[in-house]
Amino acid sequence: MGERSERTTRVSRASKELHIALRDAREQSAASREILAALGRAGAKPGEILDTILEHAAHLCRAQASQLYLLKGDVFRLSRVSGEIPTEYRKLLLDQPLARNRSSIVGRAAEEMRTIQIPDVLKDADYGRHDLQRLAGYRTLLSTPMILQNEVVGVLTMWRTDVDPFNTRECELLEEFAVQGAIVMRQDALRRALETRGKELASKVAQLEALREVGYAVGSTLDLDEVLDQIVSNAVRLTGTDGGSIMEYDESTDSFHVRAAAGSSPDLLKQLRAITIDRNSTLVGQAATAHRTLEVQDLVDTDLDPHLDALFRDGWRSVLAVPILRGERILGVLVIRRRSTGSFGPHVELLETFAGQSALAIVNARLFGELQTKTSELEIASHHKSEFLASMSHELRTPLNAIIGFTGTLLMRLPGPLTEDQEKQLSTVQMSARHLLSLINDLLDLAKIESGKVEVDFEPILVQSVVGEVATALRPLAESKGLRFEVNVPAGGLELMTDRRALSQILLNLTNNAIKFTDNGGVAIDLNQSSEKDQILTEIRVTDTGIGIKPEDQERLFQAFTQVEGKGSRRYEGTGLGLYLSQRLAGLLGGSISFESEYGKGSSFTLRLEGNQKWPHAY
Fold first, then answer.
1. Of all helices (H) and strands (E), which one includes residue 272?
2. Which of 117, 120, 113, 115 lies closest to 138, judged by CA?
3. Residue pLDDT, tens place only, 474-519
4. What is the DSSP code (8-state) at residue 162?
5. 3-state secondary structure at position 424
6. How many of the other CB atoms lie within 10 Å of CB of 207?
7. The whole model's pTM is what?
8. Are residues 273 and 187 in the same domain?
9. For the chain, which has fewer Cβ within 10 Å, the N-terminal or C-terminal residue?
10. Is 376 helix (H, G, I), strand (E, B) or coil?
């Protein structure tokens, strides 16, 4: 009978323990759900969530009080509490916070970065805060650190006023609550960082927008006063200051004068323009000479130069001077002012950026002025050059034509027979004269184009006719080199409104180049015409199997006096003007020349001309 009673007692005790464990598990689960729900709720306040954690921790661990200590520097300060905490205890902690050492359980948990329990503080030899124990009356303490990124940021602690050690489950519960508390603090830190970054980003966006506007103004207008006014206005607005000015440096007088201003009264500007702001004896001059930003946080505490004295009498109290430089050259100074005292520190980098934009604006304006002067001088020089080239070309062409004609007569043996050596020398003289005449003709054409004296006469012409004339003129040259010479044109006549002489010269240049730079294979001229709506496109393509053009030479191909080298550095005769003149003539005709080339395999040049009408003819 006794044995049965004992078995019943054990079963009853086990059932009770199981019931308690199940109840605790449910309460713990409910507490966790509540905390997690608060963590996920938008707008939840971190302090309220931490209070909830402390309340649940004290309740589930059967503690009389729970507290949260946060690390501030080298000490832990009481942040939040749950339970009855004596007022004197709080006051003492405020005056004497817990050190990060073994004198308190909070310090021990932080130092060892693990959960610490003191079963009875009165029997713990290392415990050093008996002043707090006497006020609160606790005996058993339990603490666990809150850790973020391997750093202790706080400690959760709780006590019992009786000597009643916390069991393993209660220790684990406190550790779980510490993890949840750390998550709350992490979220709060991220939120604060996000808000800070958001404000910084908004400020940066405003700064970048202002810098973009100023950059656009610098690049789109040469009105220096307009650009500098915009720069100083934006500088004052974005730094939250009260006024500013841009002082431009005058090298001739070694002084500065006001070029632009914002937030300045007419009387102040009148005073500033009436005084001499010398480079050697003023704050503005010192900043420019030293090539560094200078500030005066309180004008009362500094010697006032004429510029600062005028500002002080007008009610200004602090000044920042940012030099405007171009390399080592002084261009001016950006001056920012406030009517209150204090440092400009956070805004120096932005203001130095504005100073850089001011430098660019001043340099651009000065360069434009110099450019206008140089342009005028170049126009005069170009006019004189063109007149000289035209005059000299005519003077040289007459004797050259005479030389070509006289050598031609001799080579025809009209005056009498020639020896083989004489014929060779006369042929050399004639070839050189023709080459020089070609050069003079190119220079004359260049002078005419650059001086704007080339006039084009648009008239309806048969394109096949011009192509045929060019082919007839150059076919003998191609055949003399043993090259194939092909002309591919449509069966019907294609008529185009253009200048016949300019078109002929372009095709002669392109085809002559193709023959000149081709030693094997052939040269082909292809004519095509297509239409779309009211527009027609005429394409004349000259293709060769010659030396091709090196990739590094292709970008400068249409520049004047550019010549292409052949294999083995072989140079070909010519002035290097043919393609340049052809492209300029094509432009006068409303068209363009493009090319494709592969070095060692050949090239293809295409003349494209647009028109608005096409006339079919029998051909």
1. helix 266-274
2. 120
3. 888 889 889 999 999 987 778 888 888 889 888 988 998 899 899 9
4. S
5. helix
6. 18
7. 0.39
8. no
9. N
10. helix
